[in-house]
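Table 4 source record.
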Amino acid sequence: MPDLKQLWEIQLLDGQRRALEQKLREGQISGELRTLKTDIEQGRIIFNKLKEEYNLLKKLKKMKEMDVATANEQKKSLGEKLYGGLITNPKEVNSSNKKLESLDEKVKKTEDEILSIMEQQDTLRARLEEMSAELSKKAEDYRRKHGTLLASQEKVRQLLAQIPLSRQKMLERVDNGLWQKYTELQKKVNDPLAKVEKATCMGCRVNIPFHDMRLLKQGDGLVFCSRCGRMLYWDKQG
C-alpha cells in the first residue's frame, strides 16, 4: 500500500509556502497604506501651496505697510512745510493741500488693503494649522501601520525560511517512484494529490465511484480521479 501521508504533508507545506510568498508580495505595501500615503502626499502638496500663498500675502502686507509709512512721511514733511509757513504761494498752497488729500486717500486705501490681507492671512493660518494637525495624524498612522506591516513581513520570512528543511525531511520518507509520479502529474495539474472526503475528490468536487472507493480503502495501489486525474488520498483517521 503506497504511503501517501507524507506526500500529502509535502503538498500542504508547498501550499503554505505559496500562500506565504503571495502574502509577502501583496504585503509590499497594502492598499490601505498606499491610499494613506497618497492622501499624505496630496495633502502636503496642498499644504505647501497654501503656505506659499500665505508667504506671498506676508510679503505683500509688508510692501503695503512700507507704502503707508512712506506716504505718512510724505504727509508729515508736506504738512510741516505747509503749516510751518514755508509755503506761502497760494498756488503752491492749493497744490500742497490736494497732495495731502491724495496722500490721505492713498493711506486709507492701502490700510484697507492691509486689513483685507490680514483677514486672508488669518483664514490661511487657521487652514494651515488644521491641515498640519491632520497631516501629522495621518503620518503617525502611516508610520504605525507600516511598522506593523514590516513586522508581519519579517514573521512571514521567518516562516518561509523554516519550510525547506521541514520539506526535505518529509521528502526523505517518500518513495522515489511515488515522488516521480507526483512530479509528473504536477506538470499537468496543480496539487496532484487530492484528499477524499465523503467519497468526493476534493480536487474537483466530483463523487468517486464505489469501485475506486473500495480500492482506496483496501490500499491496493494508487487510485486516480476519473475526472481531474489527480492521485487520491484517503485518510483512514480523517
